Amino acid sequence: MKYRDLNPSTRTIMTPGPVEAEPRVLRAMAAPILGQFDPEFTTLMNETMEMIRELFRTKNRWAFPVDGTSRAGIEAVLASIVEPGDRVLIPIYGRFGHLLSEIAERYGAEVHNIETSWGTVFQPEAILRAIDRVKPKIVAVVHGETSTGCMQPLKEIGEACRERDILFVVDAVASIGGADVRVDEWKIDAAIGGTQKCLSVPAGMAPITFNSRVEALLLERKKIERGLVDPGSPKSAHARAIRTNYFDLSQLMDYWGPARLNHHTEATSMLYALREGLRIVLEEGLENRIDRHRLHEKALVHGIGAMGLDIYGNPACKLPVVTCIAIPEGIDGESVRAMLLNDFDIEIASSFGPLKGKIWRIGTMGYSCRKKNVLHVLAALEAVLLRHGASLQAGRAVQAALDIYHAQA
């Protein structure tokens, strides 16, 4: 045969995504296919919506997955609420703030950025000052920035946006299911998650939620698209038809709502996967899950420090599910990553932009976030660095991590 049987290697994946899929999720993906309007399948859809609400800690009516990777969810939200000429404020403290800006610009937004050094986040006051200066229709923020391992506090920003009648959109792709995300309490109008990170589901769906403020805008734009609003009316001057079809949230509302109007063919096996992943998250309990991620982060950080390596970034704003490590001077970071992969079947990540070649990123996310993996990556990283001639506190990393685990026992 020209092509051999599919037999991917078994890896210990310690990147900021994708991570190792939960075995129960993979089993769910092998379940028999149902038609997308089969009552049994629409029941699964409704259950998935209920679980997404619990995941985001919201009472929003609308909570469903967009078919596609996390970026599909981000684009669906921005494409559906951004109208040409809208002012959109996007604070940038890493790679994915630039992504939000690029998508908003593609849909005609007048994007305003403020930036801070990578490895830090914004004080809420800095964003509030920019809000009052720019007077945007939308503020869009990345919650957990995997490129820098930092997490932006959101509560004060959400309160300020609500007071000023500004829509607050949050990219929670990296944080949902591993760190605290509170959509209603933080007054987030629309939030986007990802499956391939802390939910331990393969990439391919993006759970989102949005509230009645967003819904009102979507319905107004839908009327214009269908010619139900006089083009010369005052309302039409403030809203225009949604330009995308696949990512049109107003059409997806018809699909996921009681009308069940056909929009696309649902990704059946991916829905099974997401439903099972969400069920596992809620079975563990959100608080227990957050505590588990913090425990393994603490063990990893103590091990890295005991080895003699430096953690990159301000520890006060560290993203608990991603740890960034400064590459020691004189060490070829890509050679280290290659040896980890080839000799230990462990994958860790490099970074982007100004941090490329300067840091490694280790994710402790979802199913990958467990004691065996943390001890394995610490022992392997130490061995590889010694082979590369690095000066280390040999033998201390695993012991430091064990100290954390045994103290919790």
Under the CATH scheme, the architecture of the largest domain is 3-Layer(aba) Sandwich
Topology order in helix (H) and strand (E) letters: EHHEHEHEHEEEHEEEHHHHHEHEEHH
Strand content: 5-15%
Using the CA coordinates, give the radius of gyration: 22 Å
What topology, given as strand order, has the largest sheet?
Answer: 2-10-9-8-5-3-4
CATH superfamily of the largest domain: Type I PLP-dependent aspartate aminotransferase-like (Major domain)
Give the gist of this structure.
The chain is an alpha/beta fold and 409 residues long.
Describe this protein's structure.
The protein is an alpha/beta fold and 409 residues long. It folds into 2 domains: 21-282, Type I PLP-dependent aspartate aminotransferase-like (Major domain) (Aspartate Aminotransferase, domain 2); 286-408, Aspartate Aminotransferase, domain 1 (Alpha-Beta Complex), CATH 3.90.1150. It has helices at 23-28, 39-56, 70-81, 95-106, 124-134, 155-163, 212-225, 234-237, 249-256, 268-284, 286-307, 333-344, 371-387, 396-408, and strands spanning 12-13, 62-67, 87-92, 110-115, 138-142, 144-145, 150-151, 167-171, 190-192, 205-210, 322-326, 346-347, 359-363. The termini are far apart.
